[in-house]
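HUMAN: Spend a minute on the protein record below and explain its fold to me.
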Amino acid sequence: MKRLLMTTAAASLLAISATAYAQDNTGATGQSQQPPVVTPPPASNESGGTTDMNNPASPPAADPAAPAPAAEAAPPASPPPSDAVISAQSDGEIRADQVIGMTVYNAEGEKVGTVHDILLDKEGKATGVVLSVGGVLGVGAKSVGLTWKEIDVKPEQQQVQISYTKDQLEAAPDFKTTEQINSEMNAQQAPAAATPTPAPAPTGGTSTNP
């Protein structure tokens, strides 16, 4: 009897243990979770862009801020020949800017005007001067042209001498530049071109409506 009781108790313990083990496995199986799948990031190249596995890696783009390669130095220019260059003004030469603005006197020492401009030919030779005669501070002055042989330039005195009086210069014709001549010719032709041609007068009597 005692052995039967011990056998029954042992069987009960085994049954209870088996049931608890099954419940533990079932609960663990229901609550278990698979670890998340982590996708590795795509490989990047040196310039920061993704690398296409199907295409070879492209070379990095040029940096716009990088200095440009230095150009080859140009050979130094050679000067004109020595016989074509004037390195200094000689004592017998006078510059045009020294003559322009000089006061003009006549033989009696009377101030008759100032040098306004110098005329040169195509070869660069001085052919005459333009004098500013009369007026007040250049306003209302008259331009008179004289040939170069009619003047005597005196650089030391900063003056020009002529043999004509102020009245003679004021009686001379006005000097005109080519621009002034062309402007006057255009002004004369403009009114003739702008004047409309009158329409011919109608012939016959006027008709009346019935």
Summary: DSSP finds four helices and six strands in the chain.
